[in-house]
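Q: Give me the 3D complex with adenosine-5'-triphosphate.
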Amino acid sequence: MGFRMGIVGLPNVGKSTLFNALTKTASAQAANFPFCTIEPNVGEVNVPDARLANLAQIANSANIIPARMTFVDIAGLVKGASQGEGLGNQFLANIRETDAIAHVVRCFEDGDVVHVSDHVDPIADADTIDTELMLADMESVEKRLQNIVRKVRGGDKEAVQQERLLRAALAALEQGKPARTVEVDPEDAKQWKMLQLLSTKPILYVCNVGESDAASGNSYSDAVAKMAAEQGNSHVIISAQIEEEISQLDDEEAEMFLSEMGLEEAGLDRLIRAGYALLALETYFTVGPKEARAWTIKQGTTAPQAAGVIHGDFERGFIRAETIAYDDFAALGGEAAAKEAGKMRAEGKSYVVQDGDVLHFLFNT
Ligand SMILES: Nc1ncnc2c1ncn2[C@@H]1O[C@H](COP(=O)(O)OP(=O)(O)OP(=O)(O)O)[C@@H](O)[C@H]1O
Ligand SMILES: [Mg+2]
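A: Here is the predicted complex, encoded as structure tokens.
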């Protein structure tokens, strides 16, 4: 499936450092100069979920296979990017291909690390990036409106719908509001998504703080938190530099390091989970002696569609899904006990899978 989260922000704010920490590699060059990254770096990460290890233990599974998510480390954007400034439009195209945005803002003071506008001001920085995304949208909306004029005149139904949506987007953008503020009717949702506007993508602000602020944040991250809340977006506080160090340690060392810092878990885990939630993703499990595995679905997915994530044949030949809620599976100590207690349900084609369901699909091919 591959849900993609783009790491976006001004140059030299710590995007590649964060990417390396997330992917536990040093595959992205991270260095103290602006525009260090040009080509996007793409990496997959495991989605941390304590339930999976627990299920594997109960069922004595030989392998554990977590859910995966993709992060893309994108080049720094600057003011004027939509007009080709900095490294320009190419990067806007990289952002277009993602499902959501992790917007990194610099919340650390460090005289040695260059800031493109010379002083730390995450609110102004975030505004610069948001504005560029909106300007890029405006340009693409205007271009598309011109391109469909003929079809609209000819009465092409799809073009008429598209024009209406493009006009709604333009009206918001012209007021300085991101396209995500437009209320879209359910019957327009598909077309709207196909417009692929940058300012409709959900945003998670990542406050990159210094080492000593990793546990409690600082006044910069407080300001970002407030701004994010006003926009209806979420935020996480992280020290990319520390996270990169932690990612190099083994589990036991990492735990000690975290507790010394006063942190309960790695910031990356919080970030990945927040990204997962932002994309409205959920997890169901398949559990057996061979493997315990987490599968990713969109909220609202039906049982046959969920089966289709494993294999198309499972969806086409779907008969029913034997379903046990995670809590029942864990509390009762496994499939047999859950079944005994009447906690295994046979669910049909219209069943909407719930986060944490342990599923066994029956199908014919
Ligand atoms: N929390 C932090 N505290 C102090 N320094 C940091 C922190 N996070 C990153 N840095 C430093 O900031 C510099 C820039 O980091 P990085 O290369 O990851 O930025 P970037 O956003 O990817 O930049 P570019 O847009 O140029 O690719 C590096 O020297 C890195 O070590
Ligand atoms: Mg970089």
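A quick observation: The chain has a mean pLDDT of 91.
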